[in-house]
Design brief:
4-stranded parallel sheet; about 40% helix; single chain; Dna Topoisomerase Vi A Subunit, Chain: A, domain 2; globular
Length: about 110
Amino acid sequence: MFVVEGEKDAEQLREHGFTATTNAGGAKAPWLPEFTVALAGREVILVPDRDVAGYARVKTIGRALLGKVTRLLYLELEDGKDVSEWFERGHSELELIRLLDPEEISQ
């Protein structure tokens, strides 16, 4: 499950076949305990927007999820300010999978 900053990014990931979510209110909205409960026991991939607020948000969420999810990954996409821009710049689903697990796809 990808956790991203905005609904646009969550929808972009869903359109590319991934499971994704976000919380309402953007980067400065509080991360509520019920969000942690909803993600407990899952593999979670945090993808920050590449700005100060995005990094702070991911740090807060990561702290809340630590020890409550089966696997917690951090993925910073360097070509773009967010995952939507990253896909707009021509990156693919396979490339995203490769970033998460380079041995998964060796093409």
